[in-house]
Amino acid sequence: MPAANFLKYARQNTPRYTSYPTAPHFHEGINHGVFPEWLASLNPAAAGSLYIHIPYCREMCWYCGCSTRATQKTGPVAAYTETLLTEIDLAANCFKGRAQLAHIHFGGGTPTILTDEQFSAIMDRIRKRFTITATAEIAIEIDPRIFTATKAAHLARNGVNRASLGVQTFDAGVQARINRVQPADQVENCVRNLRAAGINDISFDLLYGLPGQTLASCRDTVTAALAMRPDRLSVFGYAHVPHLKRHQKLIRDEDLPGPEARIEQALAIADAAHDAGLIPVGIDHYAQPQDGMGRSLASGQLRRNFQGYTTDQSEFLLGLGASAISRTPEGYAQNTADVGNWSKAITAGRLATSRGIELSADDHLRGAVIERLMCDLEVDIGRMEQAHEMRLDLPDLSDLEADNIIQRDGARITIAEPCRMLARIVAARFDSRLYRNAAARHSLSV
Prior knowledge:
Layout: H1 3-10, H2 35-40, E1 48-54, E2 56-57, E3 69-70, H3 75-94, E4 100-108, H4 116-129, E5 131-142, H5 149-157, E6 162-168, H6 172-177, H7 184-196, E7 201-208, H8 215-226, E8 232-237, H9 259-275, E9 279-281, E10 285-287, H10 292-298, E11 303-305, E12 308-310, E13 317-320, E14 325-328, E15 331-335, H11 339-347, E16 353-358, H12 361-376, E17 378-380, H13 381-388, H14 398-402, E18 406-409, E19 412-415, H15 423-428
Parallel strand pairs: 1-4, 1-13, 2-3, 4-5, 5-6, 6-7, 7-8
Antiparallel strand pairs: 8-10, 9-10, 11-12, 14-15, 15-16, 17-19, 18-19
Helix pairs in contact: 3-4, 3-11, 5-7, 8-9, 12-13
């Protein structure tokens, strides 16, 4: 398609569609009185997933959009861990039976800020209250700057088998502008320690659109990253939302690449990943063909949740910790993001659910359509309607078809391969709630 048309769509703001409905539509009607009933209705024999949120870092990276805070003290993390152990018990008590877990993911923040003893205590409590399946993926996000060989060995002893490293960029000048100084040899040493401990499934997070970032620095970063042979790359466009994240005000608007430069950077990383033999997954992931994500894509079983693209086929996702989001067939439920209020709720003997949304039949259908578009870049509307036993009011897609972003073949809609990065634009057409919340503000589509 003409570059001008691509740019016209790429500079539009759309949700990331890690859920449908998206988080701006959550409301306080879903609370600690509702969510336990949802958990009680689940079949504990159907394996689920567990997400543990650790909202602490040693220092704040200025680009960060996560729910986290910086601390150099050990007390807050220790207190948080003790409350988290209680929350595990409270959540487990809601199930009618001993629930199984096929995926466990530690995110943050920086989960590796936990001491070895704290991490072991959490894993021991999970094993005490849940059954972890023999083939479960246990993943953790890592800050290479505070990682050691001893830490790697301890994680492995606790069953961790996948690590996600926050690389972002290897450009020293850009690192200084985002307050994350992290030389390449530090990351390489982290990878070496993980593999020596037997943790061989390794993902890298990269960012484009950062302050001072150039096309050349993106190419240099992805080349250096690929030389370390990660199984997956997660490549995200920096979302500049200082109205939501005050620390991002430390990044000057005038230092940010424009929409054209962002597109060039994203495409350069995609080309490098392709040349290295990785296959594109959705809009922003790349995987080795033999990796589980590559196999899920090939078999049509790729999924998308709040951790992004995933191989997770679980019936439910239980989110624990401040700000964590859960999903059951009934809907989404989110814990309060304020650590103090989260702790008060758990200490009082109740879950800290503060908002969420119950899913209607229309939400289920639209969510399934959006997920397939985001994962497979195509969807058979007729098949979706049949599976959900209801009709879908189709949006106007004529402009997308005229601009060659999509092709139509009867009820099948396919996003053109050169336009895979615009999948959020296509998905947004099926979002009947998108403009109901005037206060919702979203990031650039590319």
